[in-house]
Amino acid sequence: MKHIYYIGLLVVASLFFTSCEGPMGPQGPQGPAGESTQWEIINLAAEANSWQRMSQEDGTNAFYMASFDIPELTPFIYDSGLVQCYLEYDQGSSNASQQLLPQVRHYEQVDGENYYLWTETVDYDYMVGNVNIYVTYSDFPDETIAPGAMNFRLVLMW
Question: How far is CA 81 from CA 7, 35, 76, 149, in A?
Answer without folding.
Answer: 49, 13, 7, 29
